[in-house]
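Good morning,

Attaching, inline, the backbone tokens for the sequence recovery test we're adding to the shared suite. The designed sequence is right after.
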């Protein structure tokens, strides 16, 4: 039996990691871990602990060593210990996330330079790098001067044991659901603006989560007097998200106006597909990498609250269309995005089948 070692400071609960681990197992691989929790071991100590744990496990022969996400800091340690068999699940650019999207610090700051260095060398040190869309691969190739053949596209998918079809109760209030981390790329302000446009039309909005823009969004809801239209739910464990989604008629994706969002397919879209929900999200190069997008989603222009409001109204008025979108999204998920299928594609790309 072939063996894959998941290595690093990755988030064990994150959907990306759970999908990959389950997919390897379903393809007949043994899955082992060398993991250090950065919430427990901080600073330089976490690197020492990871290195020492790696020294112990490297006595065994692994077919693949996969640095899980987030793993930019762990990729150099993995290469030092395991050599060229290391695969790096980059998933996103730290430089783009922190500097271009969240604007946490200036592009010429030492932190920005550190992020660029981690992005670049994390990829250079790995034999192959995993990203979630071809659009993101193209960004990495151009931004960090890396070869196209270095990368493999692996869609994110969703935890199919947590997210599965759940029909909306017929008597339920018409509900539009969003959950997220309140970062700029998500464009939550456009959801609030759309809710304002639809405030007297019997539509209940639910926005779940907390993050960078929480205060700004909550202030906007209060300023517009939308407390009775938008239900705000603070951050909850991911295990509770399917319960909120089950009662929704529509699930919302991304709406921000930046390159990162246009190249992305967010977790929430995959999760809604797994649950067979009608989905509205922004049109971009990332979402169009999924086949049959016009049959599975209602796409709207980015940063356009009016278009979002019109799309919500259109689906509210057409229950058959909502059900059709949900059925086709679930069918595509089952055919293309289950963990076994996606990891089988990865193994084929690596020549491991």
């Amino acid at each position: 039996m072939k063996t894959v070692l998941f290595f690093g400071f990755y988030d064990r609960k994150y959907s990306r990691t759970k999908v990959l681990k389950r997919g390897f197992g379903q393809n007949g691989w043994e899955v082992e871990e060398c993991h250090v929790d950065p919430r427990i071991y901080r600073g330089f100590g976490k690197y020492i602990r990871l290195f020492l744990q790696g020294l112990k496990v490297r006595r065994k022969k692994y077919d693949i060593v996969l640095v899980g996400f987030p793993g930019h800091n762990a990729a150099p340690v993995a290469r030092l210990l395991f050599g060229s068999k290391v695969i790096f699940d980059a998933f996103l650019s730290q430089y783009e996330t922190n500097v271009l999207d969240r604007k946490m610090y200036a592009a010429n700051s030492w932190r920005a330079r550190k992020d660029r260095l981690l992005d670049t060398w994390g990829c250079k040190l790995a034999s192959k790098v995993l990203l979630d869309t071809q659009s993101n691969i193209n960004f990495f190739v151009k931004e960090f001067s890396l070869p196209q053949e270095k990368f493999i596209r692996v869609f994110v998918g969703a935890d199919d044991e947590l997210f599965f079809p759940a029909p909306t109760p017929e008597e339920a209030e018409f509900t539009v659901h969003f959950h997220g981390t309140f970062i700029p790329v998500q464009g939550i302000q456009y959801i609030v603006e759309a809710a304002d446009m639809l405030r007297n039309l019997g539509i209940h909005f639910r926005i779940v989560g907390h993050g960078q823009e929480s205060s700004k969004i909550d202030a906007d809801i209060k300023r517009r007097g939308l407390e009775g239209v938008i239900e705000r739910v603070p951050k909850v464990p991911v295990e509770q998200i399917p319960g909120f989604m089950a009662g929704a008629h529509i699930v919302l994706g991304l709406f921000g106006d930046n390159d990162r969002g246009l190249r992305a397919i967010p977790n929430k879209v995959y999760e809604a597909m797994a649950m067979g929900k009608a989905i509205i999200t922004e049109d971009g190069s990332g979402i169009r990498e999924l086949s049959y997008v016009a049959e599975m989603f209602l796409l709207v222009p980015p940063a356009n609250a009016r278009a979002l409001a019109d799309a919500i109204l259109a689906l509210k008025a057409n229950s058959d269309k909502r059900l059709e979108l949900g059925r086709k999204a679930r069918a595509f998920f089952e055919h293309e995005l289950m963990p076994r299928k996606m990891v089988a594609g990865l193994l084929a790309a690596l020549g491991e089948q």
